[in-house]
Every structure is written in C-alpha cells, then in structure tokens.
Specification:
Elements lengths: L17 H19 L3 H12 L14 H13 L1 H11 L11 H16 L5 H15 L4 H17 L11
Helix pairs in contact: 1-2, 1-3, 1-5, 3-5, 4-5, 5-6, 5-7, 6-7
C-alpha cells in the first residue's frame, strides 16, 4: 500500500462521517488484533465484509470509508515501532504505552498514524475525531490524554499546522 494520501470519502461520494466510522472500526480492529491475536489480513477482511456499515441491533451504522479503514490499520501495523516511539515521547513523564489500556493504545497509534500520513486532514480534525472515539470507550480521563498526546504530536509532526481547522475529515 502506498504512503500517498488516499482518495477522500467525499471524492468517492460517501457520507462525510465515513472517515469517522473508519477510525472507530480501525481502533476496534487493532484492539482485536492485540487481545485475540487475529492476523492482519483476517481482521481487515472480517471488518470489510461483515462489520463496516452493517446495522447493529436494528440501528443503521454510517457506512465506513473502507479504504481509509484499511490504510489506518495496515499503516499502524507497518509503522508501529516508530508510532510507539513518538507516542511514548508525548506521554506524561513516567507513562509508557505498555502501561496503558490496549484500547487507548490503539486510539493513540491510529491518531499518530493519521497525523504522520494523512496530510490532507487538518490536525484539529484528527485530534477531535480521536477524542470522540475515546469518548465512545471511556468516561474518565482518557479522552483528555488523547487530546494532550495528539496535540503535542500534531505540533511536532506537522510543525505548527495545528491551527488549520479547515479541510476534510
């Protein structure tokens, strides 16, 4: 898979929330890989074939941007060593990825990957989207941790591009 930005959800005619759904699914897939040791290709196939955009308990779910989902999951796995190094450097003193919940770890890895590789998405959008994902899983301080870490990394990776709030999600 190329490191070039993928075609946006809007360009493919998907709902503007399709990338948000892809982000949530990517976190879930990485969590599944972590706790159940599901192989990369198997988890991607399972999500694309059976989970993305399916209704759950009678509730329709927004169709996820499958290409963005796959890019995030494959990219996080491919670049995990470097992503972990960057996240560890941005965590508060005394904390490391090995000490935090596996869901929070997946959120931080996904957000860091997007900051590094999806330059067409503004820093603030990436941060807000992953803070929203964190709220879907946590009621405590974790969304604040996501905000602080991704904000730090956004300034480092994008060199001040964090003020750019315009653009696609």
């Amino acid at each position: 898979m190329s490191n070039a930005p993928i075609e946006s959800a809007q360009e493919r005619g998907l709902d503007p929330k399709a990338r948000g759904a892809a982000r949530l699914a990517a976190v879930q897939a990485l969590y599944q890989m972590d706790v159940a040791a599901t192989p990369l290709d198997d988890v991607i196939e399972e999500f694309i074939e059976h989970r993305l955009g399916q209704d759950i308990e009678g509730n329709d779910i927004v169709e996820a941007d499958a290409a963005h989902f796959e890019d995030i999951v494959r990219g996080v796995v491919r670049e995990q060593r470097e992503l972990d190094r960057q996240v560890n450097g941005a965590l508060a003193s005394g904390w490391s990825l090995t000490r935090i919940d596996s869901t929070l770890r997946a959120i931080l890895r996904c957000g860091t990957y997007e900051l590094r590789r999806c330059k067409d998405i503004p820093v603030k959008v990436v941060i807000n989207e992953y803070v929203d994902v964190a709220h879907a899983f946590f009621e405590g301080d974790e969304p604040g941790v996501v905000n602080a870490v991704l904000d730090r990394l956004g300034r480092e990776v994008r060199k001040g591009a964090g003020d750019d709030a315009a653009g696609r999600s």
